[in-house]
Amino acid sequence: MCGIVGVISKEFNVAPLIVSMLKKLEYRGYDSAGVALVQPGKVVVKKDRGVIDDIRERYNLTKMEGKVGLGHTRWATHGAPSHKNAHPHQDCRGEIAVVHNGIIENYVELKRELVIRGHLFKSETDTEVIPHLIEEKLAEGLDLKEAVKETVKKLKGSFAIAVVSSKFPHKIVAAKKGSPLVVGVSEEALFIASDIPAFLQQTNKVIFISEEEIVTLTGNKVEIETFNGQKVKRTIQTINWTYEMAQKSGYPHFMLKEIEEQPLAIKETLRSTNGELMEIVEEIVKNEGNLYFVASGTSYHATLAGKYIFAKVAGIPFETMQSSEFTEAIVPTLSPKSLVFAVSQSGETADTKVSLKKAKERGAKTIALTNVLGSSITRIADEVCYTYAGPEIGVAATKTFTSQITLLTYLALKSAEVLGLEVEEKFRKLKKLPQYLSKTLTTSNLAQRIAKEIKSHGDVYFIGRGVGYPVALEGALKLKEISYIHAEGTGAGEYKHGPLALISENTPVVAVVTPGPSQTKMVGNIEEVKARGAKVISIAPEGNKKIEEMSNFTFKINREVDEFLSPAPYIVPLQYLAYYTAVLRGLNPDKPRNLAKSVTVE
Ligand code: AGP
Question: Please, where are the H alpha helices in 455-517?
Answer without folding.
Answer: 468-483
